[in-house]
Amino acid sequence: MEPLYVPINIDVAIRYHRFFDVRFFIKKRMGDMISIHQKAIFLEKTFKSYKAKGLREIWLLNEDYHRIVGELRHSLETKKDFRAAFHDINSIYSLSRNILLEHGFNKKVLEESRSLNIIAIKHILEVPDLASLMVNFKKENDAFFFRYIMQSYIINSMIKTFPWYSEQLMIKMGEACMLCDITLSESDFDHMERFPMDKWTKKQLHHPIEVAEMLRKYGKDISPDVIKVIEQHHEKPDGTGYPSGLTHSHFTLLSSIFQISAEVARKLENVDARTFDMDFLVQEIYQNNQKGVCRNASMALFSSLGLQL
Ligand SMILES: [Fe+2]
Fold first, then answer.
1. Which CATH number goes with the domain that contains 23?
2. What distance in angstroms lies between residue 237's CA and the mean position of ligand 1's atoms?
3. 28 Cα to the center of ligand 1, angstroms
4. How many angstroms is it from 56 CA to the middle of ligand 1?
5. Sorting pLDDT into bands at 50, 70 and 90, what band is 220?
6. How remote is the CA of residue 34 from the centroid of ligand 1, in Å?
7. What is the CA(196)–ligand 1 centre distance, in A?
8. φ and ψ at 232, to 5 degrees?
9. From CA 233, how far away is CA 245, in angstroms rounded?
10. Which of 26, 79, 200, 211 is most buried, most CB within 10 Å of its CB?
C-alpha cells in the first residue's frame, strides 16, 4: 500500500522546526517524494531556504503528522499572542480539512479539529471587539477559518446576554461553527454562490444532514445540541431555507442563534467593519426573526451590540 503523506505549511514548519526530528518529504514537480532526515537544530535554516525558493509545504508520513500536530497543539495552548496562535491554528485546521476531503471522514482528524477548536475558542473569548478581529484576521487567514472565528465571536457575544451562558457552551457552539460545512470544498462553495439552489448537487444541498450523520457516527461524545444546530444551520424562520424547509417552530434557540450569527458573519465578510452600517443589518435580521425562539435570538443580537429597540 502507498504510504499516506500529509502536507505541513512551510511557515508552521519554520516556527516549530524543533519538533520536526522525523523523516520529511519534498514533492517534486512530477509528484515523486524525496525523503530527507536532518537534525532538528539545522532545520530552521533549511526550511527558510525552502521558503525562499518558493516551496509552500513539506510532507510527512501520516503517523508522524499526527504526532507532530499533537505537539503543536500542546505548544499552541500556552501561546499568549493570539494573532500568531490563530495563524497556526488556521494552518493546522486547513490541513485536517484537506485530509478529510481527500481521504474521507476519519475519527482522528475529527478529534484534532475539536481540540483545536477548544484552543481557538479560548483565544476568541479574549478578543476585545469585532473590529479588532476583522482588522487582525481578514487578510491573513483563509475564508473558511475567517468565517469560523467571526461567527464564533458573534455567537459568544449573543449567548453572553443569557443567564445560562458558560464557556463550555461556547466551546460547543464553536464546534458547530467549525464542523458545519466540513464536507464542502472551496469549489462547492463557489458553485453554491454562483447558482440557484435547484442547480446544486445532492451533496451540497444535503450537507447539513450529511455532516450531522457523520458526527453521530464518528463523534460519539458530540452533544446532540451541536448536532441539531448543524442539521438546522441553513433553515430559515419562514421556511425558505434548506435542506428540509423547516420553519421557526422547529428550531431550538441555539439553532436560531447560530443561523443569525452566520448571517451577520457572512455580511461582514466583504466589508470594512469600521464603516459598515451595523444598525441597518441588525434591524433587518430583527424583522426576519420575530417569531418563537427566533425573536429571543434576534433580541440577543440587539443587546449584544448595545442597541435598543
Ligand atoms: Fe453550511
1. 3.30.1490
2. 16
3. 36
4. 29
5. confident
6. 38
7. 15
8. -105, 10
9. 11
10. 211
- Long-range contacts from 139-143, C-beta under 8 angstroms, 24+ separation: 140/87, 140/90, 141/86, 141/87, 141/90, 142/90, 142/94, 143/186, 143/189, 143/269
If 0-12 CB within 10 Å is exposed, 13-18 middle and 19+ buried, where does residue 277 land? Answer: exposed
pLDDT tier at 140, thresholds 50, 70, 90: low
Rounded distance, CA 170 to CA 192, Å?
A: 29
CA of 40 to the centre of ligand 1 (A): 41
Residue 44 shares a structural domain with residue 185? no
Residue 71 lies in a domain: no
Nearest C-alpha neighbor of 73 from the set 9, 129, 35, 119 = 119
Determine the structural domain holding residue 33 and report its residue range. 1-61
Residue 258, C-beta contacts closer than 8 angstroms, at least 6 positions apart: 155, 173, 176, 177, 229, 232, 233
Neighbours of ion ligand 1 (CB under 5 A): 181
Residue-wise pLDDT tens digits, 225-235: 999 999 999 99
Report how far ligand 1's centroid is from the alpha carbon of 193 (Å).
Answer: 12
Whether residue 93 sits in one domain with residue 208: yes
The whole-angstrom separation of Cα 8 and Cα 72 is: 12
Length of the chain: 309
